[in-house]
Structures are given as C-alpha cells and as structure tokens.
Task: structure prediction
Amino acid sequence: MSDNKIAVVIYEPDSGDLSRVFRGLKVASEFKSAGDDVVVVFDGSGVESLAALSNSDHKLHALLESLRDNVHGACAYCANGHGVKDQIEAAGYALKADADGEVSIRDLVNDGRQVLNY
Result:
C-alpha cells in the first residue's frame, strides 16, 4: 500500500456534467488500482449522482459498484434536501452527518487526505 491518502469529492449532479462524475470515479479507481487509500464522498448536488448511479440500469453503475468499498458516503443534509435520502439508504450507502448534519470535509483533511473535487 502506498502512502497516498485521497478523498474524491463529487459535487456534480447526474443531470449536470456527467463527465465530471465519470472522471471523479475513474480517478478514484486509478488510485485504488495503485493500492492507494482512497475514499469517495458525494456532497452537495453530487448526492443526486449517487442515487442515480445506484440504479443498475445507469451506464456508470458498474464503475460505482467497483468502488463500493471505497464510498465513504453522502452528505445526509444534502441527500435529504435533494430528495434522494431513501434511494441512497436503499442502495446501502452511508449518510454522513459529522459536521452539523453534513459530511465533514475537514475530517477528511484531518485524516491526512488530499481532497480532489469533481
């Protein structure tokens, strides 16, 4: 295992620039394949992408599934606000509420992770 500790944070909704979501997941996959410690977090409108990609019919579903063990979770506040909380929970992903109900990016930094935003 390498010394790299990475957090890929996806903010882009599925209805937005899907290439950003794809690129974020591919970067995470690249780090994972190299043996790096990588986590993926869905925040802001990105929670919509996690919900959409959890559907087995989505063209990026297989890529997401290949990273299932690396998905740290999704912002609980955002998932509720974007109406996708139930979909994310049903897909088996964690809802993170470490910072006043939201996912904590600071905790990722404190864990020594380099944060990459998509």
Summary: The chain is about 40% helix and 20% strand. The chain has a mean pLDDT of 97.
